[in-house]
Amino acid sequence: MKFTFLGTSAGTPTTARNVTALALQHGGPKGWYLVDCGEGTQHQLLRTRYSMLQLRAILITHVHGDHTFGLPGLLSSASMAGRTEPLPLIAPAPVRAFVETALAACDSTLSYPIEFIDVEQDSFEWRDDYLQVERVPLSHRVPCYGYVFTERNLERSLLSDKLKADGILAGPVWGKLQQGQDVVLENGTELKSDAYTAVNRQPRRLIVAGDNDTPELLRDACAGAQVLIHEATYTQAVSDRVGPAPQHSSAAQVAAFAESAQLPALILTHFSARYQYHQGNTLISEIADEARQYYNGHLNLADDFAEFELHKDLTLTRPGRNGQP
Fold it and tell me: Which residues are paired to 231 by β-bridges?
């Protein structure tokens, strides 16, 4: 399970950061999912390995422009690249109106159907062969959601001793059982895959939160999760000066929650444009320093194009950075 940050700035882009988008790759060598699509996301994708033809779904946390303005252009470019497969777009209902209006106003048509899925419906549920997606309502100025990704269809190990003891000879039947298929033998005996195989590891579970001033809302979802990706728009001092109206979290808020929830890994993103890398500016290192005061787990601050991998043993790595912010 790999993921790449395509944009990590809040509200507006900077010279070092684009606005919010995240690519998540899982299940097969090329298939991937896009969470949020700020303006310029398709330009960011040009600098990565991700292909619009292999995109399995787009998930939007909320309607604000720094999370959605890139959609019309990205969808049109996918069409011009020759996409024909339907594309699920999971989002609050107003996003559909935005996309349809923008495309119609620009005389743009798509070569593939968009499957609009309203994340706000009470019965929301979405899954494919690789991931199950749940949503968690968050606290922001508009309806906003976090997405919980849990891998499905984990690889199975054959219980070969049991198969042999039951007189089931090695062959195609073994292969079908290992793939999770139940099998009916020529004599009518039904073999259940669950009875002859075992899953030997825990599913990987990743949470990508949208804008949110109340991390506590994610507590139940964090049970069994290995990684939380959450905004830290401000340090606490700046948050106190700005006041509650923007409804964003500080680094201290998120870090304290992650520590109390015993999350193994926390990745902070969606930083105010005031945080820069250069002396003379408010430094991004202040976010990291504040978070470290409250959180003792595996902490990272996301950069644009930062790549992470959540391994089958549930460890998180960031190639080239040794896990450091």
Answer: 269
Give yes or no for a contact between 155 and 179, defined as CB atoms under 8 angstroms apart. no
- Say whether pTM exceeds 0.85: yes
Task: In whole angstroms, give the CA distance from residue 296 to residue 180.
Answer: 39
Comparing 30-34, 161-165, 243-247, 280-284, the range with the smallest average pLDDT is 280-284
Bridge partners (DSSP) of residue 267 are 229, 300
Q: Is 100 left (phi over 0), alpha (psi -120 to 50) or beta?
A: alpha
- Are 277 and 238 within 8 A, CB to CB? no
Hey, what are 264's tokens?
Answer: 């193994």
DSSP for 146-207? EEEEEE-S---EE-HHHHHHTT--SSHHHHHHHTT--EE-TTS-EE-HHHHEE--SPPPEEE
Helix (H) or strand (E) holding 283: strand 282-283
CATH topology of domain 2-154+201-317: Metallo-beta-lactamase; Chain A (3.60.15)
Q: How wide is the angle at C-alpha 284 spanned by C-alphas 33 and 148, nearest 5°? A: 25
Q: Which tokens in the block code for residue 291?
A: 């978070």
β-pair partners for 307? 4
Which part of the chain has CATH 3.60.15.10? 2-154+201-317
Angle between helices 93-105 and 71-80 (to 10 degrees): 60
Catalytic site positions: 66
* Contact predicate 275/284, CB 8 Å: yes
Looking up tokens 């201290």 gives 252
